[in-house]
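Something for you to look into today, if you have time. Just paste the record in under my message, thanks.
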Amino acid sequence: MEENKVRYGLTNVHIAPLTMKEGKIEYADFKSMPGAVNLVLNPKGEQTPFHADNRTYHVFNSNQGYDGTLEIAEIPEFFLTEILGEQKINGLLVENINAKGKSFAMAFEFDGDKKATRHVLYNCTASRPTLSGKTNADNIEAQTSELTFTAAPGPDGTTRAKSTLELQPEIYNAWYTKPVDPMAIVTKSTEDTKTGSQKKATGQQEADQQTKDSQEKEETEEAAQSQSQDS
């Protein structure tokens, strides 16, 4: 299949709360966040030039992830409670200044002329969303909410991943189950290499055992001959 020539559309925004345990991130299952209107990710980082020999000798680039903005029709209740820390009290959804928010992973996809490209951001932190409204005029215009967030690198430095045409179908189809772990994907070449290494190791063990058995047999025969001569 050929690569996409164009990108358009935005759909399938999903959110997975995360927790940090012993320096590793653990994710809950994804939950759908319908109503996405627009998503913008601005790279976060700086370029620092180093000057020598009367010129720019080297440029240092820092990658600190992304500053993101998600425009959405309506922010679902689960995001307000599970991610932003709002509480449901007697039928009310209450925001408290002492509420502790949670970090999360975000998955989404852009359509393409060949196949949709699926993305995941592994370590996001959101700010409180904007809340606005305006009176109706001749035509009813839907109001949206805007959610700003930061997508930061995780403990291993990973910020985001996206699908390619070479991605295994089972991984692509399960994209919105849990955030995909790039290091946990086993490809056919990896399996072949692993199988070959296992066979090689097994063959070496068998050869070593045969050598050991042969040496023990020779030692036993020599001992028996020596005992016979002494007699």
In short: The longest strand covers residues 7-21. The chain has a mean pLDDT of 87. The chain has two domains: 7-181, 186-231. The CA atoms of residues 163 and 172 lie 7 Å apart.
